[in-house]
Amino acid sequence: MKIVIAPDSFKESLSAIEVASAIEAGFKAIYPYAKYVKVPMADGGEGTVQAMVDATSGQIVKTNVKNPLGKDITSFYGILGDEKTAVIEMAAACGLDLLKENEKNPFNTSTYGFGELIIHALDQGITNFIFGLGGSATNDAGVGMLQALGVKFYNEKHEEIGFGAKFIKEMLNIDASHLDKRLENCTIRVACDVTNPLCGPTGASHTFGKQKGANEQMREELDHSLGHFAKLCENKLDKFDNQASQAQGSGAAGGLGFALMTFLHVELKSGIDTVLNQIHLEEEFKDASLVITGEGKMDCQTIYGKTPVGVALLAKKYDLPVIAICGALEEGYEVVYEYGIDAVFNTIAKPEPLSDILKNAKQNLQSTSRNIAKILKLQF
Predict the structure, then answer these.
(1) What is the pLDDT of residues 328-361, one digit of tens each?
(2) What is the pLDDT of residue 206?
(3) How far does Cα 334 stand from its chain's mean position?
(4) Which residues pair with 328 in a beta bridge?
(5) According to CATH, where is 3.90.1510.10 located in the chain?
(6) For labeling, which of 154, 198, 276, 315 is most exposed (least CB within 10 Å)?
């Protein structure tokens, strides 16, 4: 019996490879002679770099960049096992979790550090990129990233504007002639599961601004600034898609999606599909007997581009049974049964504080996996 284990990470407790290893340990106690294939997964958000590095026997590269407020930090990206592809999570340089609560203010934050990660990878000779968007502390429409890549933005005094969304409203001219030329010879894929446009009631500022520290008035100002930037791009750039600001995903990561589409001319793709295509999981399904997936929390949102459903739908091409093992199950999770998942289990053994649940995650996951294997033993 060949068992393919392809889970996402359990946020704040276990990486995807640690989840897969715990599941394997539980099953091996009952099926010691089965063949196990562990494929750590991600959907483009936090943990994508580590999962894809683990899945391809790649490496983590560390380098110093600016955090969202311009302070020096040590960040990272991954180079996959092919030694040609870099995977970069924008949140590794510009993530909300890099800031303290009293530092959250999207007027002040910038995507400059993300641009620095791209430059560092280019300096290593990388020509293939996968960008993961999500978890950002920024609302600057990717202007900071573009500044790092060589684009210059000027105010009415023909001075370069500063870093952060608060300066976008001062922008009157754009000089993209110094955009790093190496990017022209690169293949760039963007893993993104956010469908919001750049501006408007469902745009980047109004939808995600509150969690980044913006009150209602700030969100209105930020939305206006992003609209100003989009109009300026339309007027100043030779190659401009008039529909870019309303395109699905252009509002991702505080409008970073718009910058990538407009200046680097990339398409935004489903995060889980991007990962699945890169790591060739489908090959493992062709002679498999069982597929096990999972994530930290499963709910009604899981069907919208999350790892378990992406894995399950692919497995169903080969009529494989799919089990999902999750840290917690929340309201509406049952909808996943309509998307290829045959059985769902959670791992919380008893009521206890969240800190204890996170601490005991590996043990509980292994125990639950063993119990599931015992049930299967009744059938096989």
Answers:
(1) 999 999 999 999 999 999 998 777 788 888 888 9
(2) 95
(3) 24
(4) 297
(5) 48-271
(6) 154
Amino acid at 255: G
CA distance 24 to 333: 24
Fold topology of 2-34+289-377: Rossmann fold (3.40.50)
Report d(CA 129, CA 78) in Å as an integer. Answer: 10
Q: Distance between CA 237 and CA 172 in Å, rounded?
A: 13
Q: Which residue has the higher pLDDT, 238 or 116?
A: 116
Residue with tokens 């040590």, as numbered in its chain: 74
- 76: helix, strand or coil: strand
Provide the CB-side half-sphere exposure for 299 (13 A, CA). Answer: 6
C-alpha to C-alpha distances, 260 to 52, 133, 166, 225, nearest whole angstrom: 22, 11, 20, 18
> pLDDT digit string (tens) for 59-102?
999 999 999 999 999 999 999 999 999 999 999 999 999 999 99
Beta-bridge mates of residue 322: 291
What does R_g of the chain's alpha carbons equal in angstroms?
Answer: 22
Question: Distance between CA atoms of 371 and 365, rounded to whole angstroms?
Answer: 10
Examine the pLDDT at 380 and tell me if it is beyond 60: no
127 DSSP 8-state letter: -
Listed residue (278, 324, 288) closest to 303, CA to CA? 324
| pTM reported for the whole predicted model | 0.87
Q: Contact 88/114 with Cβ under 8 angstroms?
A: yes
Count other C-beta atoms under 10 Å from residue 331's C-beta.
7
